[in-house]
Amino acid sequence: MPLRTPGGKNLSAFGFNHMLSFTKHRKIFYTASIILTVASLVSMAIFGLKFGIEFTGGSVLEVGYKQQAPALEDIQKVVIAAGLEGTSVQVAGDQRVIIKTKPIDESKKNEVMQGLLSLGQIVAGSESFQVIGPVIGQELKNKTKVVVFLSLLSILIYIAISFRKISRPVKSYIYGFTGIVALCHDIIIPLGVFAWLGHYLGVEITIPIITALLTVFGYSINDSVVVFDRIRENLFKGQAENFSQIVDQSLNQTLGRSVNTSFTVLLVLAAILFFGGATLRYFALALFLGVGFGTYSSIFIASLLVVTIFETRQNRGLLKNKK
Amino acid sequence: MSKQANKIYLVIVAALTVVSLLLVFPQLVNKLLGYLNWKFIPNLSEAPFKLGLDLKGGCHLVYEADVSQVAAKDQKEAMQGLRDVIERRVNLFGVTEAVVSYQSAGASQRLVVEMPGVKDVNQAIEMIGKTPYLEFKQERPEAERDALLVKQQAFQDEMKAGQGQPEAVVNAILQKYSQELDLNDPYYPYFVASNLTGRYVKKATLGFDQTAMTPEVLIDFNDEGATLFKDLTEKNVGKKIAIYIDNSLISSPVVREAIGGGSAQITGTFTNAEAKDLVRNLNAGALPMPIKLISQTTVGPTLGADSLRQSLMAAWFGLLGICLFMLVFYRFSGLIACVSLIIYGGVLLCLFKFVPVTLTLAGIGGAVLSVGMAVDANVLIFERIKEERKKNESFQKALELGFSRAWPSIRDSNLTTLLIAVIMFGFGSSFVKGFALTLSLGILISMFSAMFITKVLMNAFADTRWEKFKRFWL
Question: Sheet holding B248-251: strands in order across?
Fold first, then answer.
């Protein structure tokens, strides 16, 4: 784990003021990431992603009770009495009741509301009701697909442009490739977490969560770009003996910056997560996970992967020469 | 930057700070003015922030308009007519600030009604739903009619046979015939739509049929409608004209002669109350085409206020956390970063207020996130200045180099986020748009605040005795 030269003074934010050897320990970092990624993929495969009504069409009725919300069974009775089978009923934070069902009209909603009112006192003006017809659902789905596609495309173009400058000691597309691997890692892990949350807490993949993950895409690619830029700079200076040393040196130089800038973002996200209310909670969580793992992957995955690829090729090259 | 220039910039920064704070918190100034009793200075406008439905409470309704009877080139005009009718109704209902707009989504036309702060959503929806859809139909050509009658008979027979069968069987029958017949209208084979609809109604009045002793509704068409009505009656002398309200047949009088003058009578089996309602609804505007509610979002005012309070609390805690972080890790420079962050916040709020940007939960989320990203730029600059100072550069020189060398990283790191935000703004749904807008505004101002405000503030200490406290700075 992090090595320290004895007697050094800790001046930077997290005390990483000494040369740490990342390349030496890269297997540990890879293992951690692979375990998390595989676990996330498994979680997605088992639980599946639960999409919100924005995409599937349906209605959500939420009310806030003055005191403790009524028992789930009582609410379910009300819902069934209104002829709505296959409805999900949740109680969030003791007082809020969330009912999700197929698209219903105003009179059906009023019927359910009457039933809910008979179970306890509801705070006036605390209700929210959303109906998304199947047509709109399909439309939002298509719109979101376009946004996701364009965002991915623009990031790929950005990667192609910004990485073309570095072509030593491996081709520039390899830098691009590792950048993309890191991005996939940053997206798959939050998705895995949401698949798990979807199964156990009924958390759905909604438009805010997709928005958050796209923002992560735009934000995280930078940390990798910054490290790669430093690698390029140090390659030109040509002081280090070998490539892995250059990468270590570059990572050490950019570490304070990467950690500190992400930390400030994580700080505000934590504030939204804990104080921002229910609507923004999972949005903030998706961003938090994405930015957190994004920083991790740009430090511990992207550039180290370049070293691994480089060394593998070098070894193969050596073998060829021997023959 | 020369010393002299920096002084000027310092004044600009101070002015910017004061002005933005005054504009964001006008109540303070007005209170002070009231206290001082200086009448010659006018009070500042206390215009509040524009809040979205999710923070203020209210409802957002999306209707799909059935434009199948309207020619493609007339659709825009018809939608404008529809918007005007609904707008009038909503205003009649006493909803202030309601926004009614229309948009096309592929082949379909949508009407969007936004009513912030409306208390009784049920009633509002019902009110809009009560807008009558009036249309005049004419007789179908005989051959077509007979063919449809055969189909209708077949349908009725199949339904009779299907009685007691499982739902799926009945649904299959309905599905089969719904393409060719209007299953809700038994008179469908007899009448076909004309182009005369409620869109051309100028005025409706209540009348009384002296012979039948029943109430009747008198309709005055506008000029265009009068022409259409005259043409319609001219073509159909000796035939029936059917008057439909809300898709059901009200009456089908036989036309004796062409009717000019632009007025028509509707006699039917109305009760007095029904006729009165119809007149009132027609006068408030009749729909040029049927509409259907396809999506709705309603947020109660208490819930909205809660969301607002919570998201603002998150913003304050976020800001506080960042200030603490900057103070701990960058000491006096951190303090300067905090000051420029607060100015940044003021400018951002000013923009939100006066552009104006409608603030939604997503928007506040974007703004709070941009605070975290805003301080990034300061971190990058300070790290760079630190590096330069390690090379034993002078304070002034280290500042100069730090800012200029950190700029490419600041620009690049914000560029990708901005890129994604622009795409989201261009193509996303309303949540995405709100988030993307405040995030990109925040990012742009953050770059300005780091590169200009922080720089000016730090430069002010160059060549003074303050710069001597090396450890104190970074």
Answer: B191-197, B134-139, B241-245, B248-251
Task: Read off the tokens for B388.
Answer: 């330069």
Phi, psi of B95 (to 5 degrees): -90, 115
Q: What share of chain B is helix, strand, coil (3-state, %, to 5)?
A: 60, 20, 25
**Chain A contacts in chain B segment 102-121 (CB below 8 A):** 105-106, 108, 121
Indicate if A127 and A207 belong to the same structural domain: no
Q: In this complex, do B424 and A151 lie within 8 Å of one another by their Cβ atoms?
A: yes
Cβ contact A271–B314 (<8 Å): yes
CB contact under 8 A, A125 and B301: yes
Closest residue in chain A to residue B303, using alpha carbons only: A126
Judge whether A249 is closer than 8 Å to chain B, CB to CB: no
Q: What tokens does B323 get? A: 């200030």
Which residues in A lie closer than 8 A to residue B112 (C-beta atoms)? none
The answer to whether residues A312 and A206 belong to one domain is: yes
A125/B303 Cβ within 8 A: yes
Domain-ending residue, one of A132, A163, A180: A132
Per-residue pLDDT of chain B (474 residues; tens, 9 = 90+): 577 888 888 898 888 888 888 888 888 777 887 787 777 777 777 777 888 888 888 888 888 888 877 777 778 877 888 888 888 778 776 776 788 888 887 778 888 888 887 777 777 777 787 777 788 888 888 888 888 888 888 888 888 887 777 777 877 888 778 777 777 777 888 888 888 887 788 888 888 877 777 788 888 888 888 888 888 888 888 888 888 877 777 777 778 777 877 788 777 777 787 788 778 777 766 777 888 888 888 888 888 888 889 999 999 999 899 999 989 888 888 898 889 888 888 899 888 888 888 888 889 989 888 888 878 888 888 888 888 888 877 888 888 888 888 888 888 878 888 888 999 888 777 788 889 999 999 989 988 888 888 888 888 887 776 666 666 666
B126 in contact with A, Cβ within 8 Å: yes
B274 C-beta neighbours (distance < 10 Å), count: 13
Is domain B62-296 in CATH 1.10.10.10, yes or no? no
Please name the amino acid found at residue B406: A
Q: Would the ipTM clear 0.85, i.e. be above it?
A: no
**Closest by CA position to B402, among listed B308, B315, B336, B320:** B336
CATH homologous superfamily of B3-48+300-473 equals Multidrug efflux transporter AcrB transmembrane domain (1.20.1640.10)
